[in-house]
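Supplementary material to the annual report.
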Amino acid sequence: MIDRRLFIHFDWVLLGIVLFITSIGILNLYSVTSNGETTGAPLYLKQIIWLAISLGAMLVIAFVEYRRFTDFAYIVYTTAIILLVLVLGYGIITSGAQRWVKLGGLNFQPSEFVKISLIMALAKFFQRYPGREGYSLRHLLYPFFLLFLPMALILKQPDLGTAIILLLVFLSVLIFVKVRWSSLITLGVIGASILPLVWRFLKDYQKRRIITFFNPDLDPLGASYHLIQSKIAVGSGGILGKGFMKGTQSKLGFLPEQHTDFIFSALGEEWGLVGCFFVIGLYFLLILWGLRVAVESKDRFGAILSFGVVAMLFWHIFINIAMVLGLMPVVGIPLPLLSYGGSFLLSTLIGIGLLLNVSMRRYLF
Amino acid sequence: MMELNTQRMEDFKERYRYLKLFAGAAFLLLFVYLWYLQVIRGSDLRQLSENNRIRIREMVADRGMLMDRKGRILAHNRPSFEVFIVPEDIRSNPEALEKISKILNLSQEEIGEKVKGLKRRPAFRPIKLKSDIDWDKLVILESNRIHLPGLLVDVRPTRAYHYGSLASHLIGYIGEVDENELKQTKDRAYRMGSMIGKYGVEYEWETQLRGVDGGRQIEVDALGREIKPLRSVDSFPGNNLFLTIDFNLQKVAEEAYQDKNGALVAMDPKTGGILAMVSKPSFDPSMFARNITAEEWRALLEHPFHPLQNKGIQGQYPPGSVFKIVTAIAGLETEAITPQTQMTCTGVFPYGNRNFRCWKEKGHGTLSLHRAIVESCDIFFYQVGLKVGVDAIAHYAGELGLGRKTGIPLPHEKAGIVPSTPWKKKRFGVSWYSGETLSFAVGQGYLNTTPLQLLMLISAVANGGRFYLPRVVERVEDIYGKKLKEYPSEEIGRADISGKTLRIIQEALLGAVNEQGGTGGGSALKQVKVAGKTGTAQVVRMAADFKKGDMNRMPLKFRDHAWFTAYAPFEDPQIAVAVLVEHGGYGGVAAAPIAKKVIEKYFDLEASPPVKVEEASEDSVYD
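Predicted assembly:
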């Protein structure tokens, strides 16, 4: 059944990079959450359990012939949309937002899987090339529909971070598949003109975060305090860092959401510039490797699918770190393979599974 | 085999170069900024983290005031000096801890408990040790400030209730937010230690009252002493509420209860504005505002007469003979009886294998509806009940608002119970016994009502069947006196009962207070025509050999509850009132005089002598 050549061509380098970053993530999580604050199982243990599940899922995904996904792409997409509607109806509310459904004892966040399903649906759509001229606005009507449906549902939750990621992944794919320049410019103009409209749909706390980013004096207790403390944490790490388990900012509870969205500031505090450089380097390697997998793919579907996954990883990494360093407003976007969070780890590793899949089949066809 | 689509793959190769460059540039940007933070600003930021030295001081907003309808202040804020410690700053300094514990009269263990008691607390978050310290202690603390690092004294507004327990159940109370409330309100308006409305108006109008907290970021040195303020945002006070109650009327009503328990609600029957709302025993809401102690809390919870319950809307009691109004209306509307129908009362009414008694042992003789209501004859209404049937009575009880919430904007309102044959089948799985109809017709048995429901009932009778939403807040103003919100009178329903029937009932209620032999004579006034109905709710079934007058010799907890509902003036009703005296005995004796005091006050008449529960004599009127 499974071709023996698959093992020969298995992308060990990609798997190695991913496992390396993941181990750093678990270690870092152990350090951050080991000050006895939480009751129940320690978070790093929960994360290890999720990791085991996710690695299993990744391998399953990797060994299914990826072109079979063209048959399922729209089914997967529709399922993800239905889950999103369910979460709005019956979801558990945390932090004032409905993002979770309970599935057999595990809390599960459908918006994570919307990312993957959107990428699949886009890959399926764009595998047909329209002709010499490239894609024009008329061709993009359907993909836009594919984007807006989940985006609207996710904004309703509200989860600004995931919505932004969907938009960025979508735009990246447009650039990758070569949409006509004139069409891209028109899109840009339309986008700029509806921005004020989007603003009206944001929740108060989201508006406040964006306003305080540009004017920190407005909210000394909330968002700007978090930004300052996050910057202090990273900066205080200096070149070599304070050492494993020695970060005071995270231990003393100055960092907000230190084990999820702000995990990088704990890393910066304990491992310094050297540690950060190392981790950012690994991420960079992951992105470059993924891009190569995409362009060396033997067909359009594989190329766009793997590029979509790379774009998703890239925007998560870039926006999260930029946010932690205070280069961007605080939007809830976690850091792949480092942040705590089961659904997010699972969706990340499913993405990696797709990359592995395309990568090891590039010699087969 | 699936086809491979390989059109224009060269496009991707072409993009590859730029994409690599783009990713490289993005990661370079991150790295450069990291360099800036960790190397160039590294030592600065490290210092900041080592002394971590940005502290947050909250500036708590003044809570909105509560006023009565005429603007008399019922709840406001007073400054209180509160002592906090920052555990992280004091850990290395046991002598300071000892000093603090001595000055504040708190043992070090107690302080340790408070520090440990809070889960998931950032180490530099100040913890409140004591509220409301007196001037002497403040002076000692302030003069020793330099030796007491990690200690903070802050002036904060504390809720104060001018008149202690007056209208405590209506006003409600505030307390520290608990974890659930924090989870539910994630908009950062509350922090651990913030105060939040927990009950009554303080709870329902929380968003109007709370105001917006301000805060300061302060840089402190390694010992926790303030070096300089960094940023500051002022607090903004909450909005003021004008309640519908009248302070003077409320006061008279509360005093009329003396040491008795129960509930009184008075309302303008034509607008739904609540004029007074008493529930006894009451509590002192300021106890909660200054953090109630465990013993105080237990004492309130274990009190046999439930001081934390607003009995006007949460207490459910059988309405007793007050319910004869409903039975009479059911009889007239279904034409089972006419005003002329006569029945005979011999004092005993045998039905099934039981003897149902009238409260008047010797019996009332032969009488018609008017006199039956005036004298509250039980046997007359047993017979009406049998003619009309349980479900028709239940229907008219529903028409008159029983068995469902009135919609008063206060927490935990109860709906009461109106039994019927389907209800009993569903609840107990057995059929209705016709004997139960007899108890039901005179307001005993399964039937349960709140005082507010009976107030709505009597108000509807008084004003032609109209129901108005009970209101407790008249309007909301901001601190500059600008009107933000008004709660106008709102008609929420009309009982489907003919005007003719209502007039007959009104006349009978007038008679019950003013005619010879009327049970409500205890509330009669010379200057104003009062109409009303007494009631006595059985707590336990009477013993067979029970003699009238025995009531005062019974243990308190077995004595019946006394009811009186009334409105005045008869011609143009302006005030309706429902009075319940728990274990007060007969309605005409214990409850009617309390209603009288309130009506007297409302019309500014000269007060009658204090209410006394007289020893029952052979010829007093009961029920």
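Chain A has a mean pLDDT of 83.
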